[in-house]
Amino acid sequence: MSANEAKHDIEKIRQAHKVLKEFTYELKPVVKGYNDRTLYINLATLEIKEKPVPALMKKKFIGGKGYDLKLLWDAVSGDTRWDSPENEICIATGPIAGNTNYPGSGKSLVTTISPQTGIPIDSNVGGHFGPYLKFSGFDAMEIQGKADRDVLIYIDGNQGKVQIMEAPLEATDSHVVAEQLHEMFAASEREKQHISVVSAGRGSEHAWIGCLNFSYWDKRRKLPRLKQAGRGGIGTVFRNKKIKAMVVKYSGLTGKSNNPVDMETLQKTGLKLHKEIIAHDEKQCQMRTIGTAHLVEIMNDYDLLPTKNFRFGSHPDAKNLASWVWKEMFTQNVPDGCWFGCTMSCAHGIDNFELRTGPYKGHKVLVDGPEYETVGGCGSNPAIFDPKAVVEINFYCDTYGLDTISFGTITGFVMDCYENGILNSERCGGLEMTWGNWEAALEMMHQIARGEKFGLIAGKGIKFMQEYFAREYGADARFLKDIGMHGKGLEQSEYQSKESLAQQGGYYLTNKGPQHDEAWLIFMDMVNNQIPTFEKKAEALHYFPMFRTWFGLMGLCKLPWNDIEPADNAKYPEPNKVPEHVQNYVDIYNAITGEKIDKEELIRQSERVYNFQRVFNLKMGHGKRVEDYPPYRAMGPVTVEEYESRAERYDKALKEKQNIDPTGKSTEEKITLLRQYREAQYESLIDAVFKRRGWSPEGVPTVEHLKEIGMDLPEVIELVRKHL
Amino acid sequence: MKYLKTIAEACIGCNACMSVCSKLYFKEDNPEKSAIRVTPAADGSYTLSACDQCRACIAECPTQAISVNRLGVVLINRALCINCLACVAACPTDTMMTWRGGLVPFKCIACDACAKECPTGALKIEVKED
């Protein structure tokens, strides 16, 4: 298409807009990292209003995910389902977000009641939408109600204007609509940098694993980049509300946009980390050149890279997906940060990638990624070892608005079911879902996008498929339960946890389901044996989830915490916590807000919100111990093949940990004995963790604990009393 | 490219260069606001540091606020700078400068003012191949 034709198209799309509602608001500067107001939009009634943040909400919920959860709690009842009109999508930043000095400060936190889990999901996403929303005047926004036709929400942060408009002609797929809207809302090439677009994609219309894409303008590539709020189906809710896209426009960003009380400390602390990253990244994690994909061969070497639906942790062909392969394919490298001033710069991409399948076959596109989770999920786990196939799956997941982690884990499960005879070509819509068949995996995704055949089933996730295959095909429900890698309905992310009890807890003793953003303890536990007792594991499963929750309260990225470390980090006590970086966070929080917290209060801030989220799960009819168990495949070998592939390891475990001589026993007997032991260990782990977290044996936060941490709001206490 | 050549052996530590630089660009006599820095060493010698126009900062800038002019001098567009200081961290010679309270970094633009003021010829504007 020529430039003139493209401009004509944009004009046509613009002319089809019809403003349904406009709201104007007073522009005010951010003060000490806060606006102290949020934006409310109802798509059914077309109500738009600003809401002041009450002092109590600010004190207890701090910002980011805390604000999201509070707004969502107030909006829904225990009967609300993901597609109920009152369900909301909430997007927030936090007091630290949007500063340009400290790397990793541009994250948005997004929550909704998940189609997959029925409880709140939260996702942490880069791109410029959140910070621009903040500097437009709002600490958070909530979108309630459903539109009756496709709409676009536009926020002009320089004019103080919010509009809801009909948007019939925009594309739905993210890579197209993001480009259209950057073009449309920018008055000049230079203004494109001041726009951010949130969109989903046509896959989100049919699957429960829909994600949101948050854009930012890449000035060097002259294209929008897309970062994903991936987990739990937020994109599904977005399209169910008939939102085509949201656009924010804000110019005027400076290092002082948060109006911090102590600019000098903020600059000094940020500069220290910039220098640390630039000096040491190449020797440490190579985030600036490879990003999270540097992990592939490390995970493979430690038998932690999921292959064949988590049966195994390594594969000889994993070298085809190793970091050096991606390093060759990535273009540009620096700066590749998803927010200004992030020298970690890990958001890599591949330019001019020619697609081999689907509606964009033959197009040369920019692909964001792949990151480690996508390589593990969409590559090794379904045994797809063709890197170009992984890149293509990555591209279509993004543009269709599908979560690469869930899609990858789903694909592994489907292929496992296919190999076990539960599925066949006919049941899979004509697809031969054999290990490594990347064309079939992609066609399954195109079926999801078209809303047809097997795509409609697979797109609803593993929990749905387990019930469906047992009911419709008479499959063994116990076996499906053992091999279906999900918790609470959310697919597991891409690390093997079989040999790390602490990581089994890190995945399954979580608020939203098995996502590694709460705790990643495999090296501490399995490799370095630093947390050998239940008490030590429980302490780690208290500290790290609480610490990492804080990133979500602030609008921060986790990566600059421990994917770069000071050169002398190992000299200090508890190096796993990266103590100097923890102090950096305390310092920049105090520098922006003027508060005077210490590292203990930092944990306490998180603890309040973490416990609130646990109680929120109870409100939605979930949130008890019974839902905190992994499928057995996350804990040990389910099948003879799995056991025998690592027989030496498991025989040794029987001997050393259970005092059982494996000699003469059948593999089936040994599997049973090992399983009894590991399941009992997990029960003991839950007991220890719940006790450390101040929860009852059933996993309900106790009244005493809620009072102690200061999360004793009357509605919270009233709710837990019903369950204690 | 045009750049400020420093000859440390010739420096006598009079600081006239820092004075003229900060006065020219910040209207005050303040070594913290000079793009040329004179640092005394214990043995009585001096270290001179100023940008050698190597361009490492350009790649690091997320907003493309740093560019090279036709003479090869690296310049910062203040209107585009968002004050992240990534360029300061990326500078291999520590000559992308900041001052306490300042937002936009600053650097030597090989203007010649300090070289003209230097009584010993320790500073010279020269041209080298890109």
Mean of all residue-level pLDDT scores of chain B: 96
CATH fold category name of chain B: Alpha-Beta Plaits
Give the oligomeric state. heterodimer
Based on secondary structure, the structural category of chain B is alpha+beta
Number of strands of chain A: 17
The percent of residues in helical segments of chain B reads 10-25%
State the shape of chain A: globular
* Alpha-beta content class of chain A: alpha+beta
What is the distance, rounded to the nearest whole angstrom, between the alpha carbons of the first and last residues of chain B?
A: 6 Å
Q: In the CATH hierarchy, what is the superfamily of the largest domain in chain A? A: Aldehyde ferredoxin oxidoreductase, N-terminal domain
Instruction: Identify low-pLDDT runs of chain B.
Output: none
CATH fold-level name of the largest domain in chain A: Aldehyde Ferredoxin Oxidoreductase,  A, domain 1
Radius of gyration of chain B over all CA atoms, rounded: 14 Å
CATH class term of chain B:
Alpha Beta
Detail the topology: elements first, then pairings.
The complex is a heterodimer of chains A (724) and B (130).
Chain A lengths: L2 H13 L2 E7 L12 E6 L5 E5 L2 H7 L3 H11 L13 E4 L15 E6 L6 E6 L3 H8 L3 E5 L6 E6 L4 E6 L7 H12 L9 E5 L12 E7 L4 E7 L4 H7 L2 E7 L13 H18 L15 H6 L21 H7 L19 E6 L9 E5 L3 H9 L6 H14 L3 H16 L18 H13 L2 H6 L3 H12 L3 H7 L2 E2 L2 E2 L9 H8 L13 H6 L6 H21 L4 H4 L16 H15 L5 H21 L20 H6 L1 H12 L8 H27 L9 H7 L4 H8 L3
Chain B lengths: L1 E5 L9 H11 L10 E4 L5 E4 L6 H5 L5 E3 L5 E3 L9 H5 L22 H5 L5 E5 L3
Antiparallel strand pairs in B: 1-6, 2-3, 4-5
